[in-house]
Design a protein that fits this description.
By secondary structure, this protein is mainly alpha-helical. It contains 16 helices and 8 strands.
């Protein structure tokens, strides 16, 4: 058995959300330790359909169930036990995803969909190949989940359009309304009709690449990507040779950024006022300064809590304290506007300053942020310790294998392979 493939499979299943052990009178499909039950299969199929947005017919469900039973028949008792344990631990993650709302849920579904399908495509088992075939049929140009919007070579499909919209919504930091989507689609179709084949192909590839990058990133990474790329995108859209699509996106960004707009309501009046966009950018700034990369950034509830604290504090802040905070935010914005390298150079200067401010402020917001930072350090230490133990176990395994062979380059196959001692 391929040990490394086994470990990878378990790790991915933990992330993806899988199945749960049988309970009560659940029907046993394959007895043993651990058994495969009807509930486990049903839950697996339910999850796959939800994450991938591909409904299965009753006949397809039965076919997949038969193949999944065949998959389990080939596994050892220890392998089945490990899989069942991973399914149980990951079940709650799936339940949590169901509770997410709006854009946050869409990001999560897309992320898991990409991860899950990447695993299935690499797996040679018949059950994985079957689900991959269902997915490919649904999402191919002209498939049930990917209708053709404009015929041609290549055609403009629903998937490509949705991938473009993912990037626009990321840039604007807000979901597009139905009316905005329709407007964007109309402009993009007009631009598509004027493009040559090479340009169309390039747009298909860039749309897929950008969407995959964003959907696989954590909220922390998406916020940092936006901070370090927004200025470059806006500059390009403001050029005289920008097309109608880019000019529309730029106009929407400016309109949505105005104080009092639905995207940027006034939260606390004054000089300067506190607005929604300012709160959001302050949250992005804190994620980088407190280094919340391990947890993936503030959760949606944490963002809401941060906003409540900041609104409360802003009302009591004097003008000088507000100006200091805004000055630090401007330094950060100026640095990120020059790219990731400049932003990273500024972190060592701004992070200690922020921590001193939080420790001396003594208000609820500061104490709350310090506790989040403390929990993040504990998570980072736990991961570091786990990585050290994993590395130690791997080296011990290699040491134990050395008397029996070694890894070497096989000139005939062009690969590094295990070469047993003769």
């Amino acid at each position: 058995m391929n040990v490394f493939r086994f470990a990878l499979t378990l790790a991915v299943l933990v992330v993806l959300g899988g199945l749960t052990p049988a309970r009560g009178a659940d029907r046993v499909l394959l007895p043993g330790n651990t058994p495969l039950t009807q509930k486990m299969v049903d839950q697996y199929q339910e999850r796959w359909q939800w994450y991938c947005d591909v409904p299965m017919s009753e006949k397809q469900r039965r076919t997949h169930q038969r193949l999944l039973i065949g998959y389990w028949l080939k596994k050892t008792m220890s392998y089945r036990q490990a899989l069942a344990a991973a399914y149980s631990r990951s079940y709650e993650a799936y339940r949590e995803d169901l509770q997410l709302e709006g854009q946050e849920q869409e990001w999560r579904r897309a992320q898991i969909r990409l991860q899950w399908m990447n695993v299935l495509r690499k797996d040679a088992d018949a059950s994985s190949r079957y689900l991959t075939a269902l997915y490919n049929a649904a999402y191919k140009p002209g498939g049930s989940k990917n209708p053709i919007l404009v015929k041609g070579n290549p055609p403009l499909t629903r998937v490509t359009m949705d991938q473009r919209i993912v990037t626009v919504e990321w840039l604007l930091d807000a979901p597009l309304t139905k009316k905005q989507r329709q407007k964007y689609q109309r402009l993009y179709i007009e631009a598509w009709a004027q493009a040559d084949r090479e340009t169309r192909q390039s747009r298909v590839q860039s749309a897929a690449g950008n969407a995959a990058l964003l959907q696989q990133a954590s909220p922390y990474q998406r916020h940092f990507f936006r901070s370090t790329n927004l200025k470059r995108f806006l500059t390009a859209m403001a050029k005289e040779d920008a097309d109608a699509v880019d000019r529309w996106v730029l106009a929407e960004y400016r309109a949505m950024s105005k104080v009092g707009s639905p995207r940027n309501p006034l939260l606390v009046p004054g000089r300067p006022p506190l607005t929604q966009v300012l709160v959001d950018r302050y949250g992005d700034y804190l994620e980088a300064m407190l280094d919340l990369s391990v947890s993936g950034g503030f959760s949606a509830p944490q963002r809401q809590t941060l906003q409540r604290y900041l609104v409360k504090d802003w009302k009591k802040m004097d003008a000088r304290t507000r100006e200091k905070m805004l000055a630090d935010l401007k330094r950060w914005a100026d640095a990120t506007g020059k790219g990731a390298a400049e932003a990273n150079k500024l972190v060592p200067a701004l992070r200690p300053k922020l921590l001193v401010q939080l420790r001396t402020a003594g208000n609820e917001r500061s104490q709350w942020l310090l506790e989040i930072a403390n929990q993040e350090r504990k998570k980072a230490d736990l991961l570091s310790d786990a990585e050290r133990r994993r590395h130690g176990a791997a080296m011990k395994l290699i040491d134990n294998l050395r008397p029996f062979g070694h890894w070497g380059y096989n000139a005939r196959t062009g690969r590094y392979e295990w070469m047993p001692c003769r």
